[in-house]
Amino acid sequence: MLTVFSSPGHYVQGRDATAALGPELARLGLAGPALVVAAPSAERLLTEVWRATFGSAGIDHAVHRFGGECSRAETARIAAAATAAGARTIVGAGGGKALDAARAAADDLDLPLVSCPTTASNDAPCSALSVLYSDGGEFESYQLVRRNPALVLVDSSVIVQAPARLFAAGMGDALATWFEARTCVAGGVRNMRGGRSTAAAAALAELCHRTLLADGAAALAAVRAGVVTPAVERLIEANTLLSGLGFESSGLAAAHAVHNGLTVVPQTHPYLHGEKVAFGVLTQLVLEGAPAAEIEQVLGFCRRVGLPVTLGGLGLAGADRELVERIAARATAEGETIHHEPFAVDVRSVADALLAADALGRAHGPSSD
């Protein structure tokens, strides 16, 4: 098996970075017209900035409002809008689902993608992978696209205007990076690009973890105040770049499979990707028989930043064994990343781990769960 490392072509982050979007596209030779696939909040915040930055670079652009779900139907609508506009570059602006939909449509049309996240809620911006859902919000599949974004541009001033819950959810997604990476590296399994992890990818995943523990709580406090601090900048990088490179070039394991399992239950749909992944991390550690001190560290971190550590925290208080086994059945479906664990997993063992993780979370102390 070959060793494979995958990354975006360029990464730009900082205050008011959106003002540099047009010039950055021009510098990289990314031609217009550009179609901006925009979440409603991104359109509201950035319409005037886009007009100025694209205008300064002499790049024509049009805006397509994202429909809210990264589904096959939505990616087809984006592709149609891009074709009608004669687009030669697609720019995704918004949260993870908006970026994933823009990425899938760009790949379908063989166009370059520019990723402009307006939240630090997950590690989608840097990857060459889109998570596809049904129109009803149930996980369907991963679409592995041909190339990573040509440019990822993150405006810290915009990130801190998003709800703090989204920032915390990004920490939940990033929390999985090291735990899944070390499982995949130890097992020599294929990463998301079909190769073995590099030492660089594993090191970035571990750095992501250390950054979360060191700066997560302080960064979240600053985001709640709507201000940009060095801790916020480090956490934006951890949630976006370090987690993105770490997961894609090292691999996924049980935590994300548990997320996918949770999506089959409608009660979990109001909860964010990273919130479900955070509970998936706890479940993975239980499944792997991780040391108690490590589980305690994860529980403590999640409590400090408001991430769920119980099924009740995901709308499933009092879930019975039948429902939990339904989640476990989806999590252990053929081809799921839970099978990267170094032992056989089945519905029964995963259901047991889910219930044990829930019990640990409930025993850990009072919370908003």
Beta-strand percentage range: 5-15%
| Structural classification | alpha/beta
How are the strands ordered across the major sheet?
A: 1-8-5-4-2-3
The CATH superfamily of the largest domain bears the name: Dehydroquinate synthase-like - alpha domain
Rg, rounded, reads: 20 Å
Distance between the termini: 44 Å
Write the layout of secondary structure elements.
Blueprint: E1 11-14, H1 21-27, E2 34-38, H2 40-57, E3 61-65, H3 72-85, E4 89-94, H4 96-109, E5 113-117, E6 129-133, E7 139-144, E8 151-155, H5 156-159, H6 164-187, H7 199-224, H8 230-250, H9 254-262, H10 273-288, H11 292-305, H12 321-331, H13 347-363
In short:
This protein has 369 residues and is an alpha/beta fold. Helix content is 53%, strand content 11%.
